[in-house]
Amino acid sequence: TAIVVTRLIFEWMTKDSSIQKLHMLYWIKGTRIDFIGMRRITYALSLIVICIGMAVFFMRGKNNFGVEFTGGVVQQFRFEQKINTDRVRKALDEIGLGNIMIQQFENERDFIIRTQKDYSRQIEEKFRQAFAQEKFEMVNIEKIGPIVGKELAEKAIWAVLLAFVGMCIYVGFRFEFRFAVTAIIAVIHDICIVIGAIAVTRTEISLTVIAAILAIIGYSINDTIVVFDRIRENGKLMKKATFTEIANTSINQTLSRTLLTGVSTLLVLSS
C-alpha cells in the first residue's frame, strides 16, 4: 500500500498543472549532528542495555512467555458493571494467584485471566465470594496444551526468520549485500532492546506481542532503507566527501522524517 497506492495518489495529484511542488513537513531543518562521531558511545550504551535486558530475559526463563507458548488456561469473565483491575487482582491474591496475567478490555467489564495451570474452579468460586453484589459470568474458557504451545513458538520463530530473509533479499537487490547485512544487524539490535524491555517490565510474550515485534521489524527496516537510499543519492552528489560525511549528511536530512514517523506511530499506539 505504501509503495503502490501512495505513488498512484502522487501521480494523480501532480497531473494537475496547478501543483508544481509538494512541500514536506519538517520539524527540524538544517541539523549538523555528528552521529557517526558519537558511534562508540552509542555502541557502548546499546551493548549495556542489551546485556541487562537479555540477562533478565534468560533469568526469567519460561516466565517470559504467555500460555499460548507454554500451555495453560485462558478464562474470560464479563461483569454487568465496571470493575477495577485492582479489585480483581486483590481477590486472586487471596488464593495465591495475585501475580497471574490479567487483561482488562476497554469497556472495563470484561477480563481475561491466563494461568499456566487449571485454576478455573478456584477462580470462579473466589469471584462469587468477592463479587457477591456484582453479577458476572464466565464467557469463555480455553485450554492450550504444551504441544500446541510448542507449535506456536516454532511458527513465531519461523515468522521472524522469514521476515529477516525477505528483508535481506530485498535490501540486497535494491542496494548492495553489505547494506542488507547492516540492515539486519540494526533490526536485531532493535528486537533485542524490545525483548529486554519486555523482560524487565515482566510483560508476557504472547501472540499479540509477536505481532508487535514483527511490526517493529517493519518500521525499523523501513526507516533504515530511507537512510540507505539517501546515502546512495548523496554518494553520487558528494563525490569528494568521505563516507563519514555522506552518512552524517544523510542521517541529518532524514532525521525529521524519522521523528515524524516515530511520534505518529506512538500516537496511534497510545490511542
Q: Briefly, what is this?
A:
This protein is 62% helix and 10% strand. α6 packs antiparallel against α7.
The amount of beta strand, in percent, is 5-15%
Helix content: 55-70%
What global shape is seen? elongated
E-strand count: 4
Q: Describe the largest sheet.
A: 4 strands, antiparallel
Strand order of the largest sheet: 2-3-1-4
The run of helices and strands is: HHHEHEEHEHHHH
How far apart the termini lie comes to 23 Å
How many helices does DSSP assign? Answer: 9
Rg, nearest Å: 24 Å
Structural class computed from helices and strand pairing: alpha+beta
If you average the pLDDT, what whole number results?
82
Low-confidence stretches: none
Observed structural traits:
62% helix; 271 residues; four-stranded antiparallel beta sheet; 4 strands; 10% strand; alpha+beta
What does this protein structure show overall?
By secondary structure, this protein is of the alpha+beta class. Helix content is 62%, strand content 10%. The protein contains 9 helices and 4 strands. A 4-stranded antiparallel sheet has the order 2-3-1-4. β2 and β3 (110-115) form a beta hairpin. The longest helix has 31 residues, at 207-237. It is elongated. The model has no long low-confidence stretch (mean pLDDT 82).
